[in-house]
Design a protein that fits this description.
mainly alpha, single chain
Length: 379
């Protein structure tokens, strides 16, 4: 299945839209007053899921985090009180640097998108995803609405979401492989059972990573993998009451067809953006631990960071809040860090990587209001 031309990028078409045309997410660029794009209304089920997710996050942060780390919130606050304003400002600049580097991933997946607008998309989508029910879907909806207001075609936006999503999956699978490798070769004090479990996990993650790359790189491999998964799932589908009109083979081929051209031209920028983003955020994690007096080996620190980035994908709570902090702090404590210090460092890191995205998102929405809007070619 071939990809269509990038007809939705700004400047890709000539002429102005007629007065009868109306954009589906934003007013026309010429003389229109910018208003917030319309986001999908959450259903009753999504609202319930959002409330339950926030309740679980609050429970994990309020009770689970100090309980599993072996500390208390008063002790954590006493440690955090020693973080000075200069250190906090430096951590903020580091965080902003990581967000800017991620714009390379977005501009690589959506040709025609500028870096300032990619930064707006990033902070706005993250803030919406952290606030609204069904956070991931809400973030994608915000991304779609913003890009439509700048004139991008629907298919180009959806392809960008797919490609950047696949690249994020690849990165989050690769991080634990590196983390486990660092533990196996850099930390000789691991119990044998943990070392064997880590090795098995690294092998499984590596297999998954190879399958992803094979699907993208080879049409033949995509066909073989799709048909194999079809054969494995066919008995389950026969027992299901619902009839699916498309096979996994068709889905895999369609996925590959949609992203091949984008990957061919943008893989370098997307990879640079993700490596830079996760690299800077690792340095941010390191500095957060150092700011509260926590010092562990490089192998242990990177493994804890990789585990935390993987746990952010847990869909129980918005952005994995509560789950990420509890798991990371417990691992650090298990590797010898002080309970109060490890918890304080993880909380400080979470303040920058999650909570700080909300006010940044508000600034992003204001910046979007000042940008020039354009009627999409396929409106």
């Amino acid at each position: 299945m071939s990809l269509q031309r990038q007809v939705g990028a700004p400047g890709a078409r000539s002429g102005q839209p007629s007065s009868e045309q109306e954009d589906d997410v934003a007013p026309r660029a010429a003389g229109g007053t910018a208003r917030l794009p319309r986001l999908p209304r959450p259903t009753a089920r999504q609202l319930l899921q959002g409330v339950v997710g926030l309740a679980v996050a609050a429970f994990l942060l309020g009770w689970g985090l100090p309980h599993f780390a072996g500390t208390s919130w008063p002790e954590v606050f006493r440690v955090l009180a020693h973080v000075g304003a200069r250190t906090a400002a430096g951590l903020l600049l580091l965080m902003l640097g990581g967000l800017w580097l991620y714009t390379f991933t977005l501009t690589g997946s959506l040709p025609g998108l500028s870096h300032p607008r990619a930064l707006i998309v990033n902070v706005c989508g993250s803030s919406v995803g952290n606030l609204l029910p069904a956070g991931g879907a809400a973030g994608v909806a915000a991304t779609y609405a913003l890009c439509r207001s700048w004139g991008f075609a629907r298919r180009d936006i959806s392809t960008s979401v797919i490609v950047s999503g696949v690249w994020n999956v690849l990165a989050r699978v690769a991080l634990p492989i590196i983390g486990v490798s660092a533990l196996l070769f850099g930390a000789g004090d691991l119990p044998k059972a943990l070392a064997r479990g880590g090795a098995v996990g690294a092998v499984l993650a590596l297999v998954l990573l190879v399958l992803f790359v094979a699907v993208i790189a080879s049409a033949r491999a995509a066909t073989v993998i799709g048909r194999t998964v079809d054969a494995l799932l066919r008995p389950l589908w026969r027992r299901s009451r619902r009839s699916h009109g498309i096979s996994v083979d068709d889905l895999v081929l369609d996925l590959r067809g949609r992203i091949t051209d984008v990957v061919r031209t943008g893989w370098g920028k997307m990879t640079f953006g993700l490596v830079g983003f996760f690299g800077v955020y690792y340095v941010l994690f390191w500095f957060c631990l150092d700011a509260v007096g926590v010092h562990v080996t490089f192998a242990h620190m990177f493994a804890a960071y990789a585990l935390g980035r993987l746990l952010t994908a847990v869909g129980i709570t918005p952005g994995g809040v509560g789950v990420t902090e509890t798991g990371t702090a417990a691992v650090l404590v298990g590797w010898g860090a002080s309970p109060a210090g490890a918890t304080a460092g993880v909380v400080l890191f979470s303040l920058y990587t999650h909570l700080m995205e909300i006010p940044l998102g508000a600034v992003g929405w204001l910046a979007w209001g000042l940008t020039r809007k354009q009627q999409p070619a396929d409106a």
